[in-house]
């Protein structure tokens, strides 16, 4: 067959980018993420609710121990550094915290410390010392952000590496939309945090609504509105995205062009991903796996 000449002069029609909106979707962000049966009797559960503050206290402590053991599993432990705090449901001006020098993988409900409003160990929890920098950061954060229950900070590898640039991550992937208009950068390093002013500066950088921060030359810090699971999931997501950013920057330095998600698509995706119940549901598989693997050791 003789070759056929192709007309390459005709313009190629490119369809416009497909855009979604929330108008036809469920008003409940969690319900957008799963499908049950036609009868509507199959549901995915969000954050549990409690009428009894003492029952909620036990749940909070279990969540906190699981969060630390997950951090240990991920290799985030580094000497005396790292802390997660969560408000106590019984005494809301107090918070629970890990003892200093206890490996993340060894944190259980029985060695958690209750911290008083003035930053000292309370008699109701484990009678163990706590991290001074953690008290300075978290006490200030809990006062500055009454909308959050949890604050989490440690020196994870990729978070530390990206923090030296003093820049936010780019919203380049679907999971990065969790941080669309939701990530602060604290562009200062004043040394190890041993004064309340530094905690106040970090709180100011976060502002009234952001749930995560990159602390320049230091690491990552995340918050949770209702549960430890939120702060831990947001932390591990940001840590992994810092690794992605480092990989992308290395590729871009060799001539590859990176594509950033536009504001419209990022905002649409963030409206679902940033919902506290969705964040909790995203971390729930890790919590259930830890229970299976460790036989409820975190409850001891």
TrEMBL record:
Spans annotated as Disordered: 1-38
SMART domains to which the protein is assigned, alphabetical: Aldolase_II
Cited InterPro entries: Aldolase-II_Adducin_sf, Aldolase_II/adducin_N, Aldolase_II/adducin_N_sf
Taxonomic lineage: Eukaryota, Fungi, Dikarya, Basidiomycota, Pucciniomycotina
Pfam families according to UniProt: Aldolase_II
UniProt GO molecular function: actin filament binding
Biased segments, Polar residues type: 21-31
Domain Class II aldolase/adducin N-terminal: start-end pairs: 62-246
Listed name of the protein: Arad-like aldolase/epimerase
Record's GO cellular component terms: cytoskeleton
